[in-house]
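retry 2 of 3: previous attempt timed out while embedding 4-nitrophenyl beta-D-glucopyranoside. Reduced batch size to 1 and resubmitted. Inputs unchanged:
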Amino acid sequence: MKAITRRQFAKTVAAAAATTCAGVSLPKFAFGQPHAASLDYPKGFLWGCATASYQVEGGAQDDGRGPSVWDTFAHTPGKTFHGDTGDVADDSYHLYKEDVQLLKNLGTGIYRMSISWSRVFPQGTGQPNAKGLDYYSRVVDELLANNITPYITLFHWDLPQALPGGWQSRDTSKAFGDYAAYMTKHLGDRVHHFMTTNEFVCFTDLGYKTGQFAPGLKLADAAVNQIRHHAILAHGLAVQAIRANTPSGTQVGLAENAIVYVPVIESAEHIEAAHKATRDGNAQFLTTLLEGKYPDNYLQHEGANAPKVEAGDMKAIGSPLDFVGLNIYTPQYVRADESANGYAIEPNPTSYPHMASPWLTLGPECIYWGVRNVCDIWKVPAIYITENGTSSDDVLTPAGRIEDVDRVMYLRNHLTHLHRAVTEGYPVKGYFLWSLMDNFEWADGYSKRFGIHYVDFKTQKRTPKLSAEWYKQVIAKNAVE
Ligand code: PNW
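retry 2 succeeded.
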């Protein structure tokens, strides 16, 4: 059969429909018209990509950078896939100008990146390393020269190894506040959007409870609750420090992978169940930040293991935010039931579909519910999707192409559901795709690729995948087609 284009196919279908429907009134829209079904985003909606320092920079030993807990962890045998480390990663420490051009070619107006704390403070506190700050200053200037607005995350898991006890120590929260003050004092003239931390659960629970992430400890519940408290306290102290050191108008938020509860059926009772589950399931992090206090049922549940809170902690933790950044990947289904809390979490059947990373179950309505639950419950002033994307078993064809149709499918579906949230008036300002390019995927090393640019880690060559071509069109048209 002769191959026909999508357009020709649509025309054929339309012609057939017109024939079969002779005498019957035709639908108002015409089949085969380009853009008839495009989902337009509002004017001014911001499109971007995200990365994180330890995942892309490399240059681990360069110019006085101190080690982070992730350097130590990745260099410990058995902790990461194949013993992979971020020593070189994408070598963005040297290739950042090339990376800015990738963004420019996509047409993105915003870029989310993080700072390696130990590149700027090799000891975590004390004497700053001028060359570390200079690197970030140059990256910021390069972005601005290309009309790309930097959004900076101050902490994306690479804690300076030198800080005694890491997040077990309250002094680390204080050190984070000081580091936030220093960074914003030096970049706040050019950077107007800051996120304090990225994904509390990944550097607290996964680092200190399950041990899957740095520093790889398995501590008891009371210690873990205290670590979580130090993490949200660090966020709060950083918000205060940023406000004190930047011009008014600077936007402060965080990037959080709050659990997204999706009602099994969209009806009032299940929606209410999703709201309840959202408050409870995110009690130790987002709920407490946005309410300025630990929920009573959380404290009761934790009993003697509840965190020790000092005077002033909750005021800092509850500091008002300009936006909430949500990293959204997967749904957690929930239903209303007769139990005391009024809901039941639905585990996924074993047949539930997932992407290349087994944890990455596919349910694109999660991006809608993630936004809706948070806005309905806490009435936050603005939302960014600070991460959304997927791994794919990408194959570089002999022709040098990467046809990542599963990633395009994932993204198209998520942006379709995000469009619903925007259309319903939820205050979503922008979207950052994770990730600009393949990079060091933490404990999975280089075995999982999340980029829309393929990276050959031997040559550092970056190649746009089909998904980059697709995203470029979304950005150009400000619409999903
Ligand atoms: C995020 N989960 O991590 C991180 O912010 C990125 O650094 C990371 O590369 C990206 O997502 C892809 O993994 C997550 O288990 C880790 O649901 C785990 C989960 C979600 C996000």
